[in-house]
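Minimal example, chain plus thymidine-5'-phosphate.
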Amino acid sequence: MQGIFISMEGPDGSGKSTQIELLKSYLEAKGYDEIIITREPGGTVISEAIREIILNKDYVEMGYMTEALLYASARAQLVSQVIKPALEAGKAVISDRFVDSSAVYQGMARGLGVETAYQINSYAIQGVMPDLTIHMDLPAKVGISRKKKQAELDRMELETLEFHERVAQGYRDLATLNPDRIKSIDATMTIEDIHNKIVKYVEAVLNR
Ligand code: TMP
């Protein structure tokens, strides 16, 4: 089978994990016998260790460039250790976030610039880009209040509402700029309706 790489993006609390599980079952039914589910930052022992540093809420002094480079180094390890080999072996890969998170959070919301964010990451991704990116579109307020109910907030989630609003809008802008790859879905719909929409987009990629 042909390898397929799907990334799930969206503001914190947009319901990506639930949809990833449903998408996994769908791809299994389609005949992919190995589906790699991963997340960013994370997905390897080293990348998970970097995640601990990035999200530690005590590190309030972390500079934006340090943050961007840490996300990129976690990503470099994940791409070379997991994503690239899996795609080369014809497997399906679903990643909870990928490079677009850096474009939006660091590039847009932090203000480093989208071009700078992609440039920093060009070393990390080694030319690997998703075949399809699902953007779960959700108002920032809704996402953050969902997160507050689930667990203690991390360093990024503790950012201001304005920051999270820039993230939510940033994703919409990025999707408008990349209409072929990034598909926006209203994440306030029911779990089933969202899944059905995702399936339509995945089928279009599989039938290409
Ligand atoms: P998660 O909560 O979805 O696991 O993601 C961790 C946080 O890191 C989330 O607030 C989004 C943020 N993030 C970035 O700022 N840049 C990135 O490149 C990635 C992958 C995540």
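The chain has a mean pLDDT of 97. Residues 19 and 195 are 6 Å apart (CA to CA).
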